[in-house]
Amino acid sequence: MMIFRAVAIFALVMGFSHVTDAHAQSVRIKDLVEVDGVRSNDLVGYGLVVGLNGTGDGLRNSPFTEEIMSNILERLGVNVTGEQLRPRNVAAVLVTGRLPAFARTGGQIDVTVSAIGDSKSLLGGTLIMTPLNAADGQIYAVAQGTVIAGGISAEGDAAKVVQGVPTAGVIPSGARVEREIEFDFSQLSSLRLALREPDFTTAARIEDVINRAVGRGAATMSDAGTVNVDLTKTGARSPARAVVAIENLSVEPERKARVVVDQRSGTIVMGSDVRISRVAVSQGNLTLRIEEAPLAIQPNPFSDGDTVVVPRTGAAIEEEPGIGLAVVPEGTSLSEVIAGLNALGVSPRDMIDILKSIKAAGALHADFVVM
Fold first, then answer.
1. Pairwise CA distance, residues 314 & 286, whole Å
2. For the ranges 215-229, 335-349, 354-368, which has the lowest average pLDDT?
3. 365 class by beta-carbon count within 10 Å (0-12 exposed, 13-18 middle, 19+ buried)
4. What are the residue ranges spanned by the domains of the chain?
5. CB atoms within 10 A of CB 368
6. Its pTM surpasses 0.90
7. In Å, what is the CA distance from 31 to each residue of 28, 213, 228?
8. What is the torsion angle, in degrees rounded to the nearest 10, for the CA atoms of residue 360, residue 361, residue 362 and residue 367?
9. 173: which residues sit within 8 A by CB, 6+ positions away?
10. Does the pLDDT value for residue 19 go beyond 50?
11. Where are the beta strands (DSSP E) in 51-107?
12. What does 311-353 look like in DSSP terms, one character per residue?
């Protein structure tokens, strides 16, 4: 059977009315920018989880687990030199965490524990004291505590069931800060505000709002992603007070037109400022099916005839419903196009294919993101 697909084109003209852009809502500056220097730092450590119910690492397949266990026991005064360790209640893990800005010695942070060997589950295990290092190699926190696994696993002789991820878990407030980041915020004379989504218009609006609120010339836009603030011109008693006066000011952000589609779920998300140039769209399927079913005809008994194969061919044409040639006027918004396609009964997945084609034709004026 051979299947041929072609595009069925027929005339259909859709009319769309023009709409005006919706004004963006005001957003606080603290939700649009990051203050340069005020950031968190990632931490990582290598440790051991004990107390597992026979779901730990197989030491034959994970020799690093035996090594770290021997080192811990040696530090505790237990001599295990030359001993053959084969427990199934320990697992080697990587411990990760994030040291927030202005974290002080004695503070507590959450950590994530993930198995790196062939352990089946960390459920019920306890993380032994694990130092956490930053990128500079220094120890900034020490983690220890009971692991709360993110799943469960059960198995029998002939069946096994797993829900979630039992080989990873968290320890809330499981690490204590032992070293502070050397950063004296109170001595700053200027600040740099870094926009999370760089845009010249948004940066200019942030500059204008700050200058109107705290003092003329206090803020200066450097580029699309940076606004410099001279703290000496804000009149604030300290840099922290200046940030308080700035971060709660409201600005209307300006963003690029963007269309985001999820092919798996058929979800389409777009902004109100997406526009389409004049374009003609046609969508539909024409299916031609050809089936060969030859028939063999046998001669009569006791005759000298030969077997003859008679060809038998079946052909059919099927046309699936779709839209014909749709003419979209100049400057039509994408939301109007989607509304028109929905009125015609076009499925979300077909709609995504149509949007891809419009973008490829250069008529869709927006960033097109496919997930």
1. 17
2. 335-349
3. middle
4. 41-177, 190-251, 257-292+329-370
5. 17
6. no
7. 5, 18, 17
8. -30
9. 108, 109, 110
10. no
11. 90-99
12. P-EEEEEEEEEEEEEEEEPTTEEHHHHHHHHHHTT--HHHHHH
